[in-house]
Amino acid sequence: LRIAVLASGRGSNFAALLAARDRGELIADFVLVASDKPHAGALQLAQTAGIPTLVLDPHDYAERRDYDFALFDRIAASKPDVLVLAGFMRIIDGDALKPWVGRMINIHPSLLPKYRGLHTHRRALKAGDSEHGASVHYVTAELDGGPVIAQTLLPVEAGDDENTLAARLLPLEHQLLSAVVALIAAGRLSLGADGIVFDGQPL
Ligand code: GRF
């Protein structure tokens, strides 16, 4: 399986995918790491791992949509089978991502459909939730709204603040994302017309 990763930040989720590959748990080739941020840690990780990188600066494009189409055109040139958004912090134009629906997943730090968008840990705390977590979902034009593949749960503890909650959730995100990508790489997971199919059964 040829995987392209899109990341805007430090890249710990991408690092987890690399580690899963190195442990033989994920049979895949990383063909590209793309970012909208020239100093994203994920780019350094990729370079160290000998994986091609691409940086496209949104400031070079007058319209958001122009950027998104240019980005996906450049990504397509690497001929990935699957795109993984691993801390990619841009909302992607629906028309630009349309060709990738069913082949693009995202990890989001909330129990979707709760808390789409930003500041999820803060919002869960503010709501007094006793449980928090993360979701991996197929990406559609609806922000953080695509079919959810799998979730990981985390109890909220007394005294938690958004930093402690985010820090406790991050390793669980890494496990969740690696497990889902490994299932896709093993051909056990796909998005059909009627939703997600896992081992031949509707999920
Ligand atoms: C993760 O918490 C992810 O759920 C969210 O942004 C963070 C990315 O972290 N989308 P990293 O760049 O993978 O370390």
TrEMBL record:
Keywords: Purine biosynthesis, Transferase. N(1)-(5-phospho-beta-D-ribosyl)glycinamide binds at residues 11-13. The record marks 144 as: Raises pKa of active site His. Pfam families: Formyl_trans_N. Pathway: Purine metabolism; IMP biosynthesis via de novo pathway; N(2)-formyl-N(1)-(5-phospho-D-ribosyl)glycinamide from N(1)-(5-phospho-D-ribosyl)glycinamide (10-formyl THF route): step 1/1. GO terms for molecular function: phosphoribosylglycinamide formyltransferase activity. Its EC number is 2.1.2.2. The keyword Cell cycle does not apply. InterPro entries: Formyl_transf_N, Formyl_transf_N_sf, GART, GART_AS. (6R)-10-formyltetrahydrofolate binds at residues 64, 89-92, 106. The keyword Transferase applies. Belongs to the GART family. This is Phosphoribosylglycinamide formyltransferase. The gene is purN.
